[in-house]
Amino acid sequence: MYKKLISFAIAIMLLTTTTIAATGNTVPEAIVKDLNQHFTNVSEVRWSATNNYYKASLNMQGKFMEVFYNLDGSFIGISRNITLDQLPLALIKDVQAEKANAYVAELFELVTDQAGTEYYITYKNGLETKVFRGAGDGWNLYQQFDNE
């Protein structure tokens, strides 16, 4: 049993190290430690980094999620893809009108300490893409651009 546990831990470390090495970035140990303390029972952890944040893409109990940290190591938030029926009831009714003219390309939930829970939905049609941000008070246009 002990050998299996050690083998599992080594496999997870190698997966994480390999992913980080492939991107050419290193994630500070404090961030990895924070993730491991706050998110247990995770697998398939893959780290990536930008100029503004670190992102851990992971599987937690069969659900794909992304956890974000600032470069200073502070927690930004966590996101997950959701389906339309997982939206709060107040937001579902507003989706139907926009959906008549476009298809839903992406829908996710984002939870942060600063803003609480927000929802982002991306609609696409042949001409343009619109991204809306939703909270308890309805949807607001967040971004809009022409498709190329």
UniProtKB/TrEMBL annotation:
Keyword annotations from UniProtKB, A to Z: Signal
Signal sequence bounds: 1-21
Protein's name in the database: Uncharacterized protein
Originating species: Cnuella takakiae
Native organism taxonomy: Bacteria, Pseudomonadati, Bacteroidota, Chitinophagia, Chitinophagales
